[in-house]
Design brief:
Blueprint (H helix, E strand, L loop, with lengths): L1 H19 L8 H8 L3 H29 L1 H20 L4 H29 L3 H32 L4 H4 L1 H15 L13 H21 L6 H24 L13 H31 L4 H7 L1 H9 L1 H11 L1 H20 L7 H29 L5 H34 L8 H9 L1 H8 L4 H40 L7
Helix pairs in contact: 1-5, 1-6, 1-8, 3-4, 3-5, 3-9, 3-17, 4-5, 4-8, 5-6, 6-12, 6-13, 9-10, 11-16, 11-17, 11-20, 13-16, 14-15, 14-16, 15-16, 15-20, 16-17, 17-20, 18-19, 19-20
């Protein structure tokens, strides 16, 4: 009896750093800027490469678990995660950290399906399995939500690499407990891995993101952007064709033909983009513009984290009481309202107002996420429930990665258009200072103190203006999506 619960404790323990690492770097942007002299574009890759790679690898790693057993997959994934954590902690430049974060994602993509398979295998009683899955979901949501706060606490007292070194003792405990206490499982040698297709998907996603980032840069290279876009589109086309022809596809694309499932995926993507993108924007503004420490920035965002963590049960009750369509629409509508309110709020001088809007955003976005899950799982045929769950997982991870990319790209573009640099600044530094606020601050350190103060002031004013523009745009996009959700989730009999 007790064996299954301490097995759950082991599985949850390894899931904690995986969840935290998705958002822990949000408050580390200033530290990474100064330590690694990273450009704005490099910082975006450092943060979002984790979720983007994980989105493409989680499904084939699940198949690998079926072939070798979730115990072996946990051991391999944890070892890889630990090695990647050490590599990330001691990276000497941005490119090394990006590579280490990509390796972290591969380890995480092994751990997530291994923990879920472990729960399914350990708990035979349906009620107990439901409790175990509830604990797993709570740990995942809480870890991601509190990632910035954990990062802030560590950066307050230690160097930036500590956010990765904290993983190592946890990994060591997990490896010991897994090897000793978790039994081996039967394997399915016939299970296909689809690893080539997964790599094709990841390459397509990264090329399309690269194309978008390149096209929005100041003095963008149109040929580079076009080449990346064409390459990404071709690979995505090949991936889709291979999935449609495959006997055992990695993703059941036929599910996307279902109106409600497609709507649920769009909602999951959008809600994650909104939450994760906003967290990154806030972490930058609070530290770069208002001079907050990483810990103070994490504490400032605590209301958002708490609202995200504890709104799940309430949202589930609301869906049961008022129906999926109503709750999903209201979730998106209030998210749009929250962004509009935040766009007009001075974060430094209107803290109570900002916290109020952030609480509303956390509650509404989390409600939208739960509604997306309900939409996908309720509309999927019973025989395709596992495939639908896989699509949902990918939508969450892809949304987290896209949130960084989308908000980062729009913010950089708006910043470049808004900044008014002093004429005394050398022409050779103008382009760098216009690219992003972190690069403007690096430029400020290269010139005289008086000129540096002018550059910093210009960057702060431009970021405030960009903040408002980005959140207003996000509010408008969410409002449009609200209308889409209302009509897309209409009952079939109304057609």
């Amino acid at each position: 009896m007790f064996r299954q619960w301490y097995t759950l404790a082991i599985l949850v323990l390894i899931y904690i750093p995986v969840a935290i690492d998705a958002t822990v770097l949000h408050v580390a942007v200033p530290s990474l800027t100064m330590a690694l002299e990273a450009s704005g574009n490099e910082l975006l890759w450092i943060i979002d490469i984790y979720s983007l790679v994980m989105a493409g690898m989680v499904l084939p790693m699940g198949a690998l678990g079926d072939r070798i057993g979730y115990k072996r997959l946990t051991l391999i994934g944890s070892t890889l995660f630990g090695i990647a954590s050490l590599a990330a902690a001691f990276s000497s430049d941005a490119s090394q950290l990006i590579a280490a974060r990509a390796l972290l994602a591969v380890g995480a993509a092994m751990i997530v399906p291994a923990t879920l398979a472990g729960i399914r295998s350990t708990f035979n009683n349906e009620r107990e399995r439901g409790i175990a899955l509830g604990i797993w979901v709570a740990v995942g949501a809480g870890g991601a939500a509190f990632g910035p706060l954990v990062g802030g606490i560590l950066l307050e007292h230690y160097y930036w690499g500590s956010v990765f070194l904290i993983n190592v003792p946890i990994i060591a405990l997990v490896l010991l407990f897994t090897a000793v206490f978790i039994p081996r499982q039967p394997v399915q040698r016939a299970q296909t891995l689809n690893l080539t297709q997964a790599l094709m998907l990841i390459a397509a996603i990264l090329l399309l993101v690269l194309a978008a980032k390149t096209s929005l840069k100041v003095n963008a290279d149109p040929l580079k952007a076009l080449g990346a876009a064409i390459g990404g589109a071709l690979l995505m086309t090949l991936f889709i064709r291979s999935q449609l022809r495959a006997r055992a596809p990695m993703i059941d694309l036929t599910l996307f033909t279902h109106r409600i499932i497609l709507t649920g995926v769009v909602m999951a993507l959008t809600a994650m983009i909104a939450l994760v993108g906003f967290e990154l924007l806030m972490a930058q503004e609070l530290q770069f513009v208002h001079g907050f420490s990483p810990l103070d920035a994490g504490l400032f965002m605590l209301p958002l984290m708490l609202a995200c963590s504890f709104s799940g049960p309430a949202a589930g009750a609301l869906v049961g009481r008022f129906g999926l369509r109503t709750v999903a629409t209201l979730g998106m509508a209030f998210s749009a309202l929250s962004f509009f309110g935040l766009s007009m709020t001075d974060m430094a001088h209107q803290r109570a107002v900002a916290w109020g809007w952030m609480i509303l955003l956390g509650l509404s976005a989390s409600t939208a996420l739960l509604s997306s899950t309900a939409a996908i799982m309720s509309a999927a045929p019973k025989e395709k429930a596992t495939a639908a769950g896989a699509i949902e997982t990918m939508a969450y991870e892809l949304g987290a990665g896209m949130g960084i990319a989308v908000f980062g790209m729009i913010l950089s573009h708006a910043f470049s258009g808004a900044i008014e640099l002093p004429q005394e600044l050398p022409v050779t530094l103008m382009a760098q200072a216009s690219a992003s606020i972190n690069e403007a601050l690096l430029v400020a350190q290269q010139v005289s103190p008086a000129l540096g103060d002018l550059v910093v002031n210009a960057a702060n004013q431009a970021f405030k203006a960009s903040h408002s523009a980005v959140l207003t745009l996000a509010s408008g996009m969410l409002l449009v999506l609200t209308l889409v959700v209302w009509f897309a989730l209409r009952p079939v009999k109304e057609q």
